[in-house]
Amino acid sequence: MGRLNYTNRKSEGLKLGQVIAKDLLKRIRPGSGHKAALRDPYVEIDVSGRALTDEGLLETANALTTSAVFDDEHGKVVILEELGLKANQLTAGSLWALSKVVALAAHDLRDLDLSDNLISVGTTEETAAWEAFLESFSGCCVLRRIDFSGNPLGPRAFEVLARVYGKEDPVELLSISDIALNGDDLSGDFTSATGSSTILERPMRRMSIVSDDLTSDLEVSSNTAGHRRKFSRQDAQSPDKQMSTNAPEKPFPVYASTRGLRSVPYIVFGNTTMTEACALHLSYVLVCHNFPEQLVARVPPAKAGPPQHQLESYGITSGCKGMVYLPNDKLGTAGSRVLELAELARTEMLDDASQDEPDEEFKTPTKSPSALRKVSDVQSSPSFSATSGRRRSATSATGSEHGGRNASSGNASNELDRARSRIQGNILRDFGVSSVDLWRISLRMLTSSRAILLLAAEVIRHEHVKATEPRRLVHSPPPPQPARPAQLVQPVRPLFQTQPVDDAFPPLPSSAMRAGVAPLKHSKPTPLRAGNPNHPATPTGHLRRRKRSVNPNTHPSSFESLTSADTDTDTNTGAYSAPEAKFEQQPYRSRLPHGFSENVWMQIISHMAGADGIVNITQQRSILRWAMDRTTLSRGREALGKPEGAQIWRLLEGIGCLAYDVRARREG
Q1: What are phi and psi of 205, to 5 degrees?
Q2: What are the tens digits of pLDDT across the range 5-22?
Q3: Where is this chain compositionally biased, Polar residues type (predicted)?
Q4: 510 falls in which pLDDT band (50, 70, 90)?
Q5: Following DSSP, what letter does each residue of 335-357 receive, concatenated?
Q6: Which tops the pLDDT comparison, 100 or 484?
Q7: Spatial CA neighbour of 136 closest among 161, 165, 167, 100
Q8: Could you tell me which of 625, 647, 644, 643 has the C-alpha nearest to residue 635?
Q9: What CATH number does domain 2-174+255-354 carry, 3.40.50.360, 3.80.10.10, 3.40.50.740, 3.60.15.10?
């Protein structure tokens, strides 16, 4: 293990950063330390208390990035496991460079100490750097601790923490017994390229959540581990052993099963000038974070001595479990109360999850095609559901402590909601809606949606109501005409009456009538239309001519009468002759403005409001539905007599944008 300790150096700032960079770059071929780096590429860097500053850290980060990506046929030369940057006057501007280092060391970094620096998140640039830094932990799977204590982070830092934490997938704790029993199936997926798996030789802490017979197989004593470590170093002189030792490692299945900030057992926020606004955002994260006892078993154990004692002291000195937020003098009564209730809700939630785990008798066979079988697959089985239901009913019937705890869980959840509501109201009253990015952008998106879509939604609603009314296909008979008075004079009969020559040849019209008629044009005979086989075919030309004669500007009633006349029964044949239908597939066109669909408008408005990455899809859809619903206007008028903060709170509650969506379990 190459430990680079610079705590006793006299250099500071940029000069110290250049010294660290020189030491790291010497490990790259043809540097003087290349061969030694191949034998032991693991690096621990400690620069605590040396005033490295942002300039010096930039030099160090660039050298770490260059050396970490270097990989030749013999393996890597730098595998970063620990990075101590305590008390180095670092600001949020250095987080951009640090995020690249963390992302490259995602499978190897085990401890990161950024305590007692000057990291504060307030401006837009600082917020972007802090968010990118937190997102760089998404691939970390062996990280034991992140220490932010002693930094004046500010409320916006905790808001971004809740946002990034909510985007990560919930941790699904795999059954370690299944992984241990299926080790043969997993050896090929988590070994190095040369077939060795040196990470399996490292000592693993006793896993308390596994039965004793399984832990005995997984537990390795420190003496045996030390013997193996010495043996590997001695054998590293040969080229073959050298290549197998320095080949890039892949994490053991237990370690790779959890990733991101949710997988870190200890995240320290002590003395970060936390206010009740910080506590509000942290409460959503705290409820969903697993206990360190559950997560420590899934990361490599700390080295014996001060590092291990420091991790164990967090729960003793502060009383916090994993997410360490004490001491913080500016937390206040409301902030302390909401975090206490969040701890209680966290305990109840995780205890309920542990009760739902299957018993030994319901476990599926150990040798299965899927080596990473999850506990949820067993919980979904009918036998487990029935048995767990009987076990819960028996517990409640006997009046055990679990039954009383489940009965009080609803009260604790309600108290937590009320405590959060009070803090939210205080923030809106004292700092306004612009103090929280989620609130500000949600209201901006709601305002734009209502201005664009409310009128169109009202038109669509009226059209829908009109379309649902029954249509009259046949006109009602005309109103009765008033009766004419009886004629007193008899009609005069003509003197001469002539009989028509033949009914089939009517007389020609008069010359006056012929003057206004255009001469007839000879047309081709109309084709016969295939109709009912029981009736003779009839020409369809008269139907086409009748349809052409319809004026589109004619009143709809006259158009319907013509249409109904076209569909009448033929008096000559007695057959039903429908008009010739001409079907054309028309493209879909929404009735919203410009014919855009609701999803398209949601993307346009969210991009215009800057909601991407802040307001999730569910909240965006809720905002659009709220904006297009006219009944929400009346609900808003009901709150006009209340203070402005209360009105905004009710509006944010209605659209579901009071807090980020942080879930403890995966849905579905």
Answers
A1: -70, 150
A2: 999 998 999 999 999 999
A3: 234-247, 550-575
A4: low
A5: HHHHHHHHHHHHHHHHHHHHHTS
A6: 100
A7: 100
A8: 647
A9: 3.80.10.10
Q: How far is CA 615 from the centre of its chain?
A: 9
pLDDT of residue 257: 66
Task: Name the percent of the chain in helix, strand, coil, to the closest 5.
Answer: 50, 5, 45
Q: Cα angle at 656 between 652 and 662, to 5 degrees?
A: 120
3-state secondary structure of 569: strand
Give the chain's largest Cα–Cα span.
Answer: 143
Interval 387-400: pLDDT, tens: 344 333 333 333 33
Inter-CA distances, 521 with 504, 517, 518, Å:
22, 12, 9
Please check whether residue 203 is in contact with residue 220, taking contact to mean a CB–CB distance below 8 angstroms: yes
- Of 163-167, 336-340, 452-456, 509-513, the range with the lowest mean pLDDT is 509-513
Sign of the C-alpha dihedral, residues 184, 363, 666, 312?
A: negative
658-660-663 Cα angle (round to 5): 125
pLDDT at 541 over 80: no
Can you tell me the distance from the alpha carbon of 418 to that of 260, in angstroms, rounded to the nearest whole number?
30
Separation between Cα atoms, residue 567 and residue 565, nearest integer Å = 5
- 612-616 long-range contacts (CB < 8 A, ≥24 apart) are 613/163, 614/163, 614/437, 614/438, 614/441, 615/438, 615/441, 615/442, 615/445, 615/657, 616/166, 616/660, 616/661
Angle at 353 between CA 348 and CA 356, to 5 degrees: 130
- Residue 528 predicted with pLDDT over 80: no
3-state SS string for 158-226: HHHHHHHHHHCCCCCCCCHHHHHHCHHHHCCCCCCCCCCCHHHHCCCCCCCCCCHHHHHHHCCCHHHHH
Task: Name residue 637's amino acid.
Answer: R
DSSP string, 578-624: PPPP----PPP--SSGGG--HHHHHHHHHHHHT-TTTS-HHHHHHHH
Summarised one tens digit per residue, pLDDT across range 114-134 is: 999 999 999 999 999 999 999
Other CB atoms within a 10 A radius of the CB of residue 599 amount to: 13
Q: Which residue has the higher pLDDT, 576 or 158?
A: 158
Look up residue 436 and give its amino acid: V
DSSP character string of 527-556: PEEP--TTS--EE-HHHHHHHHT--TTS-H
405/412 Cα distance (integer angstroms): 10
Centre a 10 Å sphere on the Cβ of residue 130 and count the other Cβ atoms it contains: 25
pLDDT in tens, 455-494: 665 555 544 445 555 554 445 556 666 665 555 555 555 5
The residue type of 563 is T
DSSP secondary structure letters along 73-109: TTEES-EEEEEE--SS---GGGHHHHHHHHHHTTTT-
- Alpha-carbon gap, residue 323 to 350, rounded angstroms: 15
pLDDT digits (tens, 9 = 90+) for 250-298: 445 556 568 999 999 999 999 999 999 999 999 999 999 999 998 988 8
CA trace torsion 578, 580, 585, 588 (10° rounding): -50
Residue owning tokens 């369809």: 540
